[in-house]
Design a protein that fits this description.
Radius of gyration: 27 Å
Order of helices and strands: EHEHEHEHEEHHEHHEHHEEHHEEEHEHE
Helix content: 40-55%
Number of domains: 3
Strand content: 15-25%
CATH topology of the largest domain: Rossmann fold
Strand order of the largest sheet: 3-2-1-4-5-6
Structural class: alpha/beta
Number of strands: 15
Number of helices: 14
Shape: elongated
CATH architecture of the largest domain: 3-Layer(aba) Sandwich
CATH superfamily of the largest domain: Hypothetical protein VC1899 like domain (Restriction endonuclease-like)
Length: 389
């Protein structure tokens, strides 16, 4: 019977990392009262439900007295040894006084000790004079994270009922269409948002995805936004670019009318919303280097999904991916960001990543346009990588 000694931490990943990699029959958590109150239920549920742990115990420790900590731990570990358990001590995330106590006990009882380096996905074993080794004597668990499991560990849930129908993402033809749209959007990134607004304001398709509008109406709409970098010439070039890529059909751009037909509803949606193509392109790139990846993810804060969405507290993240034990939150912004928009984008990303990713979350802001230097500095301070797509 293998028993892990753990130190209960505010960071859920540090509480379960060892059991994700190795099979423990029993886990004894030592920690402070406030942390036990906050983390006991979710930690026990995750370990028994997902990691195959049979029994989980929690023991409160003094926050001030090292002798008291030593006495509590020595008593509980002694009881476990009397049961015939093989004990392995995980010091991942331990606080200084608790670490001091366990250092004394591991030397005294010759108990094997290890640490999980979560960021580098490796196990570090210490020489304590024990004749046992975690890597040699405990069977591997090899539980791999997907997004659902990671968010569950953090006490949340993915609300799939709010996701757009993205079945087309598994279609190679649609993926090719996304890349074709991206090539045009990339060339004309300085006026992409204005182009999508032009479509919504005066180039709305009918039920058959056909567009027909007087040229004078299109030119009048363009003239109403003089600050935009979108010109009649660029508008025509973009439409022709989509025609060449097969995204638009039956294109006629004359002095009298603008006429064209979207290839299908899926490509129309990619162009219609200004941020959609940046999100989809980011998703396709992120998917190449991740174990699991989703786009347009709605995250429920307490993990309880109600029949009425209005009763749920939700956050949306544009792209979410998992690689190994690490999760990445990606926010995509297609338009040019002013000062307030830049700050909002950074703090919005920080909030959702802190709640559902914690200290090991990676945060990335993907934009069409570079941020002002002062906001690049703020992003760096917040641990957010800013990428101009």
């Amino acid at each position: 019977m293998n028993t892990f000694i753990e130190f209960l931490d505010d960071e859920p990943m540090e509480n379960v990392a060892a059991c994700l990699k190795y099979r423990a029959d029993r886990v004894l958590f030592f920690g402070y009262d406030d942390v036990i109150k906050a983390r006991k239920s979710s930690t026990e549920q995750f370990l028994t439900k997902r990691c195959g742990v049979q029994k989980v115990f929690f023991f409160p420790l003094s926050q001030k007295s090292l002798p008291s900590v030593l006495q509590t731990m020595r008593t509980r570990i002694g009881e476990e040894l009397k049961l015939g358990s093989s004990i392995f001590i995980d010091i991942t995330g331990g606080e200084s006084m608790i670490l001091a106590a366990i250092g004394i006990l591991s030397h005294e009882l010759k108990l094997p000790m290890f640490e999980i380096d979560i960021a580098r996905d490796r196990v570090i074993e210490m020489d304590t004079g024990s004749d046992r080794l975690l890597s040699r004597d405990v069977p591997r668990n090899e539980i791999l994270f997907d997004i659902d499991l990671y968010i569950e560990m953090r006490g949340g849930a993915v609300n799939y009922s709010l996701h757009k129908d993205l079945k087309a993402l598994n279609d190679p033809e649609f993926t090719a269409d996304v890349m074709a749209i991206w090539k045009v959007a990339d060339v004309y990134r300085d006026c992409w948002t204005s182009f999508t607004e032009l479509l919504k304001s005066c180039l709305t398709p009918d039920e058959n995805l056909r567009v027909s509008r007087r040229t004078t109406s299109v030119l009048d709409t363009l003239s109403e936004t003089p600050s935009s970098s979108l010109t009649p010439l660029k508008t025509e070039q973009m439409i022709r670019g989509f025609e060449e890529a097969g995204i638009l059909k039956d294109v006629e751009l004359t002095a009298e009318r603008y006429r064209f037909t979207f290839k299908n509803a899926a490509v129309k949606d990619c162009i219609w919303e200004s941020g959609a193509i940046l999100e989809l392109h980011t998703y396709l790139e992120e998917m190449k280097r991740s174990d699991d990846c989703l786009v347009g993810v709605h995250l429920d804060w307490d993990g309880i999904l109600h029949s009425r969405t209005s009763e749920d507290v939700l956050n949306e993240i544009d792209v979410l991916s998992v690689k190994g034990d690490l999760i990445t939150f990606i926010s995509c912004k297609a338009g040019r960001l002013g000062s307030s928009q830049s700050l909002y984008a950074l703090y919005e990303l920080e909030t959702v990543a802190e709640r559902f990713g914690g200290k090991y979350a990676r945060k990335k802001l993907v934009t069409f346009q570079p941020l002002n230097g002062i906001y690049m500095e703020r992003a760096a301070e917040m641990g957010i990588e800013v990428v101009v797509a």
